[in-house]
Specification:
Layout: E1 2-6, E2 11-15, E3 23-28, E4 31-36, H1 42-61, H2 71-85, H3 92-110, H4 120-131, H5 137-140, E5 142-143, E6 148-149, H6 157-176, H7 204-219, H8 227-243, H9 247-252, E7 258-262, E8 269-277, E9 280-285, H10 291-301, H11 315-324, H12 339-351, H13 356-362, H14 367-373, H15 384-387
Antiparallel strand pairs: 1-2, 2-3, 3-4, 5-6, 7-8, 8-9
Helix pairs in contact: 2-3, 2-6, 3-6, 7-8, 8-10, 8-12, 13-14
Length: 394
């Protein structure tokens, strides 16, 4: 590595590779400080380094030179505390997501930056950095399957949002330990109010088409070895669309959590389900259409009480049928998944005139969420007699 010393050995200029840009380093106020001059010419780099050093000296003289803990120090503290304190309340995958965002994106950009220098502007600079194509992308990224450079694609809005959330949590950790006095505003200053869009669901006609396709698949699967899975999938679709369960709730469901009862209020036979999901333990009363699929599962599987109803999520088979029936995407281009069966259940209940509060309670969600993502898009929820009011003419 080539090194040059200037200003009486107070500043060192170095470059890691021949022909590369020169970097400057100095030791000031008890800390080693570095900066890229972004110059390949030694003479130009010396001028940049001298200006940088004199600026640092001036900041030190006026007490403006930031020192103390860096973002990397706060990130290490956050990783230790978050994993221990949230143990059992957050999934290992969720915790690992924060670690990955720090390792891959946040630490390379902010790691050596003093916490006191991280402002709202730095948060905006990070967004710009992530949305800008790297200059060396074509050189460093190659698609070996297609034998051509891999095209750059900017991160999704939600991806950057999650990274900003991780950054904010690290800064909150620093504030709790007294390393900074306040947390800068990291919100997107140019973000417009997002358009409210409905969740991808099946209309009643599309739902009928879908469950009839799963029924045909259960009767005559392409491969006889998968007949049990095809039968399970058909019953899974019917139970999900008649209960409004989330896929993760269905995955945790055990046979001991379900009871077939005669409902006093309706006089119908339904399922009473004890649900364990992201909101803790809740309860659900099914539509009558869920009873027969559940009875078929009891006959087919002869289960123990602690066996899970759906040990598999049937993702590949479910997607195959959706594609075959041309139901994978709704008219807005949004992909339908197993979650769409829950969305369909909520919409069907509202279309039938069910009380929105009771629907929210049965689905373990809030009235606000239903009004925002479901009721706002169903014309049947609007009472024309209350809207089209006119004053009587005298």
């Amino acid at each position: 590595m080539e090194i040059h010393r200037i200003l009486g050995d107070k500043v060192r200029l170095y470059r890691r590779i021949e022909g590369g840009a020169w970097h400057a380093s100095t030791y000031l106020a008890g800390k080693e400080r570095r900066k890229s001059t972004k110059q390949k010419s030694l003479s130009a780099a010396k001028e940049v380094a001298e200006d940088w050093y004199l600026e640092l000296r001036n900041k030190k003289r006026h007490g403006e030179l930031a020192s103390g803990k860096t973002f990397r120090d706060a990130a290490k503290k956050f990783e230790i505390e978050y994993e221990v304190i949230t143990n059992g309340r957050r999934s290992p995958k969720w915790v690992q997501g924060h670690k990955d965002r720090l390792r891959l994106h946040l630490l390379p950009f902010l790691g050596s930056k003093p916490l006191k220098e991280i402002t709202s502007g730095v948060g905006q600079e990070y967004r710009v950095h992530r949305m800008t194509k790297p200059k060396n992308w074509d050189d460093d990224h190659f698609d070996y399957d297609k034998l051509e450079p891999k095209p750059w694609k900017h991160p999704a809005r939600n991806t950057i949002h999650n990274e900003i959330v991780t950054m904010s949590m690290v800064l909150k950790t620093a504030q709790r330990h007294g390393w900074i006095d306040f947390i800068p505003d990291l919100s997107d200053p140019y973000r417009r109010q997002s358009k409210v869009e409905h969740r991808p669901w099946f209309t009643q006609k599309e739902y009928k088409q879908f469950y009839e396709a799963t029924r045909r698949n259960a009767a005559n699967p392409k491969n006889p070895r998968y007949k049990w899975y095809a039968e399970q999938l058909h019953d899974y679709v019917l139970i999900m669309a008649n209960t409004g369960l989330r896929p993760d709730e269905a995955k945790r469901l055990e046979y001991r959590d379900i009871e077939i009862v005669d409902d006093e209020a309706t006089g119908e036979t339904i399922l009473e389900i004890e649900v364990r999901g992201k909101r803790g333990i809740g309860f659900c009363k099914s539509m009558p259409g869920a009873v027969r699929p559940y009875e078929r599962m009891l006959d087919r599987n002869n289960p123990e009480q602690t066996d899970r109803l759906f040990p598999s999520d049937f993702k590949k088979m479910l997607n195959g049928i959706l594609h075959a029936e041309k139901l994978k995407f709704d008219r807005s281009g949004k992909a339908r998944t197993a979650y769409s069966l829950r969305h369909s259940y909520i919409c069907f209940r509202l279309l039938e005139g069910a009380d929105i509060y009771q629907v929210a309670k049965n689905c373990r969600t809030s009235v606000e969420m239903i009004e925002k993502h479901y009721a706002a898009h169903l014309k049947d929820m609007i009472d024309a007699s209350l809207v089209n009011v006119r004053k009587k003419k005298i």
